[in-house]
Amino acid sequence: MLISGRPKIVVTIHGVRTHGKWQKAITPFLAKYGLIPYHIDYGWFGAVGFYIPWLRERKIRAVRDELRRLVGGSDARRVSVIAHSFGTYIALTALRDERGALLYDRVVLTGSILPCDFPWDVVFQQKWALAAKNVRADADWVVSLADWLYHNLNWRFRYPVGKSGREKFEQNSAVLLDDELCGDHSVAHNELRFEQWARFIAYPNLPDDIAEKIQAEMQVMRQRAAMVLAVPVEDVRASMFVPWDGALRPLPEVSDNVTHAPEYGLEIQPGHGTIGVAFERGQPMTVIKAGDSWGEHPLPGSEIEKLDPRLGWALSFPLRSDALGMLAVVNIDGLGDPPQIVTGENSDALALAAFRIFTPFLAVGRRCLETAFRGEKPERPEV
Question: What is the C-alpha to C-alpha distance for residues 134 and 121, in angstroms, rounded to an integer?
């Protein structure tokens, strides 16, 4: 089951002297992870035309107009992008020049001709894009030639490109991933990379191998919570909420014992409810239902209506990565009356109980989400 929210559209943009055969080849890999492909084909464009200003600008405007129409005509607030060569320049200069009118979720660049000093700090600070992966090739002569021509052509024909398809971007960021391959301009266009890019773009939807690992640990955590809190295990539930599309949303595939279907449609804003406050403050939160009240940090009525009416209490624990910041909130809650340790006045006892419940899970959960964030597969356990 995919995380609730708007659809994840993936735009692919090819380069010069090609019709983008790789765009068709990547389609089944995107579909496998619930992604919706949208291939932009601006037609065959020769290398000479690239250096003729009016021809080049006409192509750029056509692609930008198509991107605007796509976003304006869909339910998606953001689109993800996979671009190659000239397509990298079109996609990222459009993002920069639109200054927030066009938003990307995740970006994959291959054979990039963007300058190495491209302002990623501005892009990420303004949230014009949320994460990017630059796939470089150590023998990409096309990128080197484009950079050489930029520095040696008559100024009338210059175009501000660079060689980020061979060298790292100058700026460092935890959400700007770098991947170097051995090969030439199109070496990245193979099934192994297509699979990785699809996993990277699908995040926070989790591939089965990672979801199954987290779900197994959530089961153990739920059972541990029942033992520590001295309540029936069938009354305890475990879930994980991740930020996506402007709200914290549950990951259905890792939840354990959550049987009230409307809850999978929860959209919790940071600062709302124990989950939103735990995410915003980065600290554990506890809440007990008293009559119809959910304490000093209530959810909006539209979200409370989605909760299981039998729900009586909740413990929410933030899951943070040193590199990536806040990844998720892990939630243990229960049906019926709250356990005595939750209702008691001994805050130290409650803190110790939460430590015993959540701590064994956090390292595994953090490692799994970091792996999913990068689009990688989990390490196999040693035999």
Answer: 15
The tens digit of pLDDT for each residue in 213-227 reads 999 999 999 999 999
Q: Which domains occur in the chain, in start order? A: 9-202 (3.40.50.1820), 208-374 (3.30.450.40)
pLDDT at 382: 45
The amino acid occupying position 187 is V
pLDDT band at 112 (very low <50, low <70, confident <90, very high): very high
The radius of gyration computed from the CA coordinates of the chain, to the nearest angstrom, equals 24
How many Å apart are CA 198 and CA 372, to the nearest integer? 11
Report how far Cα 269 is from the mean position of its chain's Cα atoms.
17
User: Could you tell me the pLDDT band of residue 68, with boundaries at 50, 70 and 90?
Assistant: confident
Phi, psi (rounded to 5 degrees) for 335: -90, 140
Identity of the residue numbered 17:
R
Tens digit of each residue's pLDDT (9 = 90 or more) over 286-337: 999 987 778 888 899 999 999 999 999 999 999 999 999 999 999 999 999 9
Residues 6 or more apart whose Cβ sits within 8 Å of residue 232: 226
